[in-house]
Amino acid sequence: MRSRLLAWLLLFSAAASLAQTAATPRRPLPKQTVPVSGETAEASRLRGVYGPYRANNDLQSYKLHVRVDPVAQSIQGDNQIRFRMLASDRRIQIDLYPDLLVDKIVMDGQPLKYTREGGAVFIDFPGMLHAGDEYTIDFFYSGRPKPVGRFGGITFGKDPAGNPWIVTSCEDDGSSIWWPSKDQWRDEPDDGMEISVEAPTGLTDASNGKFVGETDLGDGYTRWDWAVHYPINSYDVSLNIGKYEHFSDPDSGKYSGVPVDFYALPADLEKARTQFAQAKGMLDAFQHYFGEYPFIKDGYKLIQVPYTGMEHQSAVTYGNHFTNGYYGRDWTGVGISPRFDFIIIHESGHEWFGNAVTARDVSDMWIHEGWDTYIESLYVEYQYGKADAIQYVNGFKSKVTNKSPIITEHNANQQPTEDQYFKGALFLNTLRSVIDDDKQWFKLIHDYYQQFKYKTIMTEDVVAFFNEHSGMNLTPEFNQYLRHTALPTLELRFDPAVGRVSYRWKVDEVEFSMPVKVGDPAHWQTVTPTVDWQVMPTAIPADQFQVATDLYYINVLKDVVKDVQKDASASVPSGAPKQ
Predict the structure, then answer these.
(1) Mean model confidence pLDDT for the chain
(2) The domain containing residue 306 runs over which residues?
(3) 480 shares its domain with 498
(4) Is the pTM of this model over 0.70?
């Protein structure tokens, strides 16, 4: 996912229409308390908060069955929801946007009572549901979902040849736009899910998971069945219905042992065959750093859609016009992104960070976006070398605004700003330099991924892992970059008369003591400033004294003592130690 700064604003108005062949940039809008769908503040709160009727149960599986009518632009179906009670209770919360009808909810063939508050559906049971026991309900629904958000949630459009083209993309506004679900990030179905999509015969549905089969229903519709073998975030669940051509490579070894399938419109088939081959390099790179593709049983799909793209688990969607860069543009402005298709690399990278390792709350979404943006640079490093990777990641600096902290309020359905992408990636590049041992760094990030794959986590989990496994107290660094707005500023005060420089960090975190390389790039010297002044000798003039700002995302403030007095103490900043 990705913010496109001014480009987003220019192209945003086109996002709701899938009838256009030009995709609309999709990365993120500024944080918002009320979603673009027009949800009320209370409805947004109910969707954001992990309230008691969500917390009292744990999802085990979904079995989603939908029929999509392109002419009526409607959907109807049911979701069989299996859950285990964590605490005894008589009520649970499932979510469905209010423009869709609840036809009935049943358990063991008996109808259940329910009440609706905005998008929340509170389901009441006639008897106590006991902690530790599993239960199954069938939630039947129907209606005409309204397009909401940047990509419409679910949109009924047409391809350039006039065929129906129906796709979903609902990360920002929630899965309950088009199907009844536990519409939050914390709880994923432990045993995965089954997806069955009925579409007019002649069209193809490409959804998440392993393809099970297609069945002609004899009424003008064909059912497409898919099996998801892993936990899945509700916003990742996707249907993509169109006049698709499907192709794959029978030689899975070519793709590092990962089963791959591709879906494109007939007119774009040959372009897709060429462009989608970049999936091989992506899989090679990310498996090199993090281990086996996380959804190997389900395989990897790349599916053409009319919007930019989205990281739907095992069914990554793509709309970058079969060009390198971002819509043919140099995304980071340093001449490297035109070498590869940005959307293929970025959206597929989310299979590792976002889909396998998932934030428990949207407040900590940098766990998806900061990490995924950072591993773009690892792809560059794998393909072209470290120097290009460092140049690539530093290209993000111009995109950072530093207007608010990356981590937002928990339980508030408040998406962070775009800094979660760019500042998050630059922070991780900084952290690599703090570790200052690439062998250790690559082991750390590999083990971090392996520790938390198929889990939902918060930033506290990330910090605890890196503290324990690095043997360093990195909490102040995480806090400064993620929970405060200002960058660390390295203050340098030069006293050429005595050949020394005083230095300290200007930061919010009082225990901040991040090491940094300074001096001569040919012979870097590592110093460890704190918030208190320290002094070191140097013969390097202030204008030639450098700081490795390509390795550390920091500000540098230089000052030179101009009036040299006999008393050496006059050349020492207030609070600095005297020599």
Answers:
(1) 91
(2) 1-31+248-485
(3) no
(4) yes
